[in-house]
């Protein structure tokens, strides 16, 4: 269950990171509120997950999910470059997340 909570926390990390772009430096009220709400939810869920998972593993997976999701959405939503090298390194992060999950115990 902690891994699912951590995954959802990572999704909310993506939401607040993308929200930063839409909030225009936190100057647009509606996107700013959504960004702050997503940030709070992400942190609360991360805190819940680390009650059962090692903090180093949980934090690395949480940031990895956020980095991968934000980078991919940056490509889709904001026309950021989708070069072969960039996609290769994003896939390295994915392999790291999966690897941490495979080698980590639940406490």
Layout of SSEs?
Layout: H1 2-22, H2 29-49, H3 55-78, H4 84-103
Keywords: Cell membrane, Membrane, Transmembrane, Transmembrane helix, Transport
Membrane topology: Multi-pass membrane protein
Organism: Halobium palmae
In short:
The chain has 107 residues and is mainly alpha-helical. Helix content is 80%, strand content 0%.
Task: Describe what this molecule looks like in 3D.
With 107 residues, this protein is mainly alpha-helical. 80% of the residues lie in helices and 0% in strands. It is built from four helices and no strands. It has helices at residues 2-22, 29-49, 55-78, 84-103. Helix 1 (2-22) packs antiparallel against helix 2 (29-49), helix 1 (2-22) packs across helix 3 (55-78) and helix 3 runs antiparallel to helix 4 (84-103).
Labels describing this entry:
single chain; flat; 4 helices; mainly alpha; 107 residues
Poorly predicted runs of 5 or more residues = none
Using DSSP, what is the number of strands? 0
Q: Order of helices and strands, N to C?
A: HHHH
| Averaged pLDDT | 95
CA-atom Rg in angstroms: 15 Å
Main structural class: mainly alpha
Number of helices, counting only DSSP H or I runs of 4 residues or more: 4
- Main pleated-sheet profile: none
Shape: flat
Report the β-strand fraction as a percent range. Answer: under 5%
- Quote the distance from N terminus to C terminus: 12 Å
Helix content: over 70%
Organism: Halobium palmae
Pfam family, one: Multi_Drug_Res
Subcellular location: Cell membrane
Transmembrane segments: 33-50, 57-78, 84-103
């Amino acid at each position: 269950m902690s891994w699912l909570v951590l995954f959802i926390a990572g999704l909310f990390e993506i939401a607040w990171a993308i929200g930063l772009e839409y909030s225009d430096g936190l100057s647009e009220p509606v996107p700013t509120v959504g960004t702050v709400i997503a940030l709070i939810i992400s942190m609360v869920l991360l805190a819940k997950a680390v009650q059962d998972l090692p903090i180093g593993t949980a934090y690395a997976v949480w940031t990895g999910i956020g980095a991968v999701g934000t980078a991919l959405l940056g490509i889709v939503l904001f026309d950021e470059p989708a070069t072969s090298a960039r996609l290769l390194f994003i896939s390295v992060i994915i392999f790291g997340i999966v690897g941490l999950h495979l080698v980590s115990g639940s406490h």
